[in-house]
Amino acid sequence: MKKILCTILAGAMAASLLTGCGGSSSSSNSGGSSTAAAAGAGDSAAPAEGEQVINIGLNTDLTSLDPHNHNDTASAYATRHIYSNLVRLDENNEFVGDLADSWEYADDVTVNFTLKEGVKFHDGSVLTAEDVKYSLETQKDSPKVGHLVSMIDSVEVTDDTHFTIHLNTPSNALISSLNHSGCAILSKAHVEKLLAEGKKIEDEPMGTGPYKFDSWTPGASFSLVKNPDYFNPERSAQNDKLVFKVIPEDSARTIALENGELDMMISVPTTDAGRIRDNSNLALDEYVSTHVEYFCANHTKAPFDDLRVRQAMNYAINKSDIVIASINNEGKPFDNYIGEAAIGYYDTVTKYEYNPEKAKELLAEAGYADGFTFTCYVANSTTRSTSATVIQANLAELGITMNIEQMEASTFYEKTGNGEHDACLAGWVANAEPDNTYRPLFTSASAGAGGNRSFYKNPEVDALVDDAAVNRDKAAVQKDYETVLKTVSDDAVWVPLYSPTGMIARQANLQGVVPSPIQMHDFYSIHY
User: Fold this and answer.
1) CA 346 to CA 464: how far, in whole Å?
2) 15 CB contacts (<8 Å, ≥6 apart)?
3) How far apart are CA 119 and CA 44, in angstroms?
4) Cβ neighbours of residue 265 closer than 8 Å, sequence gap 6 or more
5) How far apart are CA 485 and CA 346, in angstroms?
């Protein structure tokens, strides 16, 4: 194992050394060229003189420009800026009105909302309560984000700026769910027009956000341009255009930052963190993230339908080796199922220490003393492919053969959502509401595309999550979530691997970068 780990580390170090020849970073906005337009979007014009174009590096592409058809971070970087929500989470972690001017609970299941007046969609049409009703009720049918509004029974429109949300049960999660990117408000007229023409929302995304959709070249880049008519002047864009460049290879992203092709890099290669810190032209903003990486077995497929096998996997995988090889110690091994900085985190989980002998005993009890063979799906990611290689080596010592199959992110989400995988490597960034972590990841109703890619089903956990969502007793809610964590860890639903340190790298003179622990970074404030 030491030899294997050293080989992996040597390769990573060699790659890091080879990339050290990149040019020094630019001291001003690079103003890089815009991307080719997506089908139907029109040609993307070159930046005008004096226009601030912010180039942002990502390691993965978005999967959809329809906020109701995705639940991944990269897609949310686009849709959260194209669309607006009824509420948003401010810098003090408090929920404030976004499209909503105010709201009031008439009782536990009735919430009256007032919209801000005169808010315009990008096509100039005015937002009304009918758009809200259409958006929320359409969202309920989404397998990706429908769980966020499962507590909504109906939306009753009073007039253009007043509506009432009727709940089917009291809910502690309603307001925070409305902040989620999946609860973006669409234009009813625009969507109905697209559908009548045989198109999808992704073909012509249009909202009320601080940016308008500009272009998307799948696998390469996507871009947004400033909305000059944005309704909130305090949060209007301080730059003219955002270009998100998809650069899967870690060292290539770092070189692009060093030579000024990128102004900012969200997916910071941990092997390059030290050299970014040492570069006076660059800055590294570090923060505590709610991000957790994990190995996820499909409980519907043998041998992972056996608890003893899943427990053996927890004992068999050396998390410390993964932290060293995959993220260069820029994080820590993790035993929990929700990030330490997240609301709803409690240290009540069962901890499985690295113990190959214990793993062998459990495998023998389950009838797999000679091991077994399975395939692990991994979305294209240098970090996760390295993690998979370490896990593969760990399991090989127990006679287990793990085949690794890498694929594009969109294919990964589709296949794992359909349950085609034996196992996969994935990650989760908890947001402001615990229900939006526990419900998609561990409840029976969310099995598959809803987020529960382990296809774990436990009526006790379902009941606890449901109670935590409606119970007004805070102590009881805490007890519910503590019990959920203890139960899913006892059931070895995953193998939690590690929690990485949050990092954003940028040109040193780029201003207005405000990291978000839940990785829902806002880009409107970024400028030179």
Assistant:
1) 15
2) 250, 251, 271
3) 26
4) 56, 57, 253, 254, 256, 257, 504, 505, 506
5) 8
Amino acid, res. 154: S
**Full 3-state SS string of 94-121:** CEEECCEEEEEEEECCEEEEEECCCCEC
Q: What b/e readout covers 182-214, taking b as 16+ CB neighbours within 10 angstroms? A: bbbbbbbebbeebeeeeeebbebbbbbbbbbbb
> Rounded to an integer, what is the distance from CA 251 to the centroid of its chain?
22
CA quadruple 64, 67, 70, 71: dihedral, nearest 10: 140
Q: Is 232 exposed, middle or buried (0-12, 13-18, 19+ CB in 10 A)?
A: middle
Does pLDDT of 132 surpass 90? yes
pLDDT in the model for residue 73 = 86
Q: What is the DSSP string of 217-274?
A: ETTTEEEEEE-TT-S-GGG--SSSEEEEEE--SHHHHHHHHHTTS-SEESS--GGGHH
Q: What would the mean pLDDT of 227-253 be, rounded to a whole number? A: 96
DSSP state of 452: B
Q: Is the pLDDT score of 71 beyond 90? A: no
Structural contact between residues 7 and 201, judged by C-beta atoms closer than 8 angstroms: no
> Does residue 31 carry a pLDDT above 70?
no
User: How confident is the model at residue 49, as a pLDDT?
Assistant: 66
Specify the pLDDT at position 44. Answer: 41
3-state secondary structure of 416: helix
pLDDT for res 4: 46
Q: What is the mean pLDDT of residues 163-171?
A: 94
CA–CA–CA angle 306, 307, 312 (5° rounding): 100
Tokens, residue 374: 């399975």
State pTM to two decimals.
Answer: 0.72
What angle, rounded to 10 degrees, do the helices at 2-18 and 319-327 form? 20
Tokens of 388: 């998979």
Q: Give the integer Cα–Cα distance in Å for 275 and 273.
A: 6
Question: Dihedral of the CA atoms 319, 323, 325, 326 (nearest 10)?
Answer: 110
Q: What is the DSSP letter of 341?
A: T
Instruction: Compute φ and ψ for 429, nearest 5 degrees.
Output: -110, 110
For tokens 């990128």, what's the residue? 262
Whole-angstrom Cα distance, residue 13 to residue 155?
Answer: 56
pLDDT, tens digit, for every residue of 169-228?
A: 898 889 989 999 999 999 999 999 999 999 999 999 999 999 999 999 999 999 999 999
Q: Are 382 and 250 in contact (CB under 8 A)?
A: yes
Tell me the per-residue pLDDT of 396-454, one tens digit each, with 9 for 90 and over.
Answer: 999 999 999 999 988 999 999 999 999 999 999 887 788 889 999 999 999 999 899 99
